[in-house]
Each structure stands twice: as C-alpha cells, then as structure tokens.
Amino acid sequence: MDSNDPNAVLPYFSIERKDYEIKPISQGYINDTYALLQDGGPCYILQRLNAQVFSNIDVLMQNIHHALPYLNDKNYCQISLIRTIDGKPYLKINKSHYWRMLTMVPDSIAFNTTQDKGIALEAGKIIGKFHSLLQEAPIDIFKDSIPGFHDLNLRARQFTEALGSATPDKLKEAEKAILFVKMTLKELREWVAVGTRYFRNAFGYAPRVTGAPVLEQLVSVEAGGSYSYVIIEAPLPITG
Questions:
Q1: Tens-place pLDDT, residues 24-45
Q2: Do residues 219 and 235 touch, judged by C-beta distance below 8 A?
Q3: Nearest to residue 20, comparing CAs of 3, 8, 33?
Q4: Residue 64 near residue 81, CB atoms below 8 Å
Q5: Under a CB-based contact definition with an 8 Å cutoff, are residues 13 and 83 in contact?
Q6: Taking the CB of residue 99, how many other CB atoms lie within 10 A of it?
C-alpha cells in the first residue's frame, strides 16, 4: 500500500464502500488535508498527520476524542471522528505515516485571512463558543501534544532572547511585528477568561468566578489590513 495515497487508505476506515471523489484542500500548513465528495458534495475530511510536528500522535488524537463530545450546540455543528475498521480513532501505517478521518460540516467555508469585519466577527463568535463549550471538560484528561508549545512564558523568553541577538537591520525590518508582539503579550498578561473553577491558562492558574454571568468582550486587532479577534470573558490581572 502506498502510505501517501489517500485512495489507498480509504478501505481502512469505517465508511460505505463506494467511489469517492478526493479533492485536496490547500489551506493549512501542518497536515495534508483532503475532502471526500459524494454525489458532488463533501461528506468527510481525510488528513495525513504530520508526525514531524506531532511526535505523539496518540496524545493528539486522545485530546480530540475527549473534546468532541463537548463541542455540540445548536450554534456549533458537531463533528465526529470516523474510526478505522478495527475501532481505532486513527490509522497508523508505520511510525511516520498516520491518517485520520472526520465528518465534514455541511456548507462550511474556511478563510485564511479576511478584511471583512463581519467575517472576522463570526470567527470570533465561533472561537468564543468553542471555549465556552469546553468549560465543563475536566482539564486533567487533556495532555500536551507538543510540550511547551502553548507556554507563553517560554515564548516570551524566546522573544526577548531573539531581540537581544538580532542585528540592527533585522530589528528595523521587523519593527512593526515586534511592536505587535509586545502589545499582544501585554494584553495576554492582563486578561484571562473567568468562569466556574480554576483552570490552567497561558501564564499560570487563575480563578473562575462561581455562578457569575459570563461577560463576553470581543477585542479586535488590526494587522496588515486583516482582522484577528480574541475572545475575552472578563478582565483579571495575572502574573508571569
């Protein structure tokens, strides 16, 4: 079997046996993604996972397995993992080739960037809904698939070290990006989400307020003509 051929791996997943049209999806930078089309419409997402980026595929897939049951709401379309024919959440061909399949959200569309404030607003809403739905998930069932990747204390130290070793020309070239990072780090240190219990955030632990109504505030950052949105539920100073 050609472990790089999406057609070759389809028989190993628990889907109806038929001829699917396979369409590559060029969006995304880590995994190789394909849409499986049936009668002209997409029905599944098939991905070849990048084992060089995700060295622990089992932890990655267990995190998704734990999260998906919580991600179901009238304003959030649930997706499901399609298991392999032997009941596993992903297909392992060898130590460097892994595939997974998920159901596809009907009539969905993805944007890498946008200059449309309405689209950016909807992206912010769905990110907020994502975090809101996961509030009741026990934190200890999730593990770091890439240790340190979301450790902003580590990233802040790396940023400071890079500034110290950069040449004047590089600092000048990256002047706008450096300013953006400094502003963003400051914001992240000053704001965290609050809710019903203690949770681990980027810089440490902060309390959620029991029984308090959730305050959603949408903060937009304009960068290079595009809009990124951060969902923040309440201000709370933290250390780090």
A1: 988 878 899 999 988 777 789 9
A2: no
A3: 8
A4: yes
A5: yes
A6: 24
| 209, 194 contact by CB (below 8 A) | yes
- Domain end, chosen from 103, 133, 153, is at 103
What backbone torsions phi and psi does residue 164 show, to the nearest 5 degrees? Answer: -70, -25
Rounded to the nearest 5°, which phi and psi values hold at 13? -105, 155
pTM above 0.85, yes or no: no
The last residue of one of the domains, among 103, 131, 165, is 103
Question: 10 Å Cβ neighbour count for 86?
Answer: 8
Gap between the Cα atoms of 52 and 146, Å rounded = 11
Reported as a single tens digit per residue, the pLDDT across 125-166 is 888 899 899 988 998 898 888 888 878 788 889 999 999 999
**Domain range spanning residue 30?**
6-103
- 77 and 126 share one domain: no
Distance CA 161, CA 27 (A): 32
Determine the Cα–Cα distance for residues 103 and 32; give it in Å rounded to an integer: 16
Contacts of 43 (CB under 8 A, 6+ apart): 20, 36, 37, 103, 104
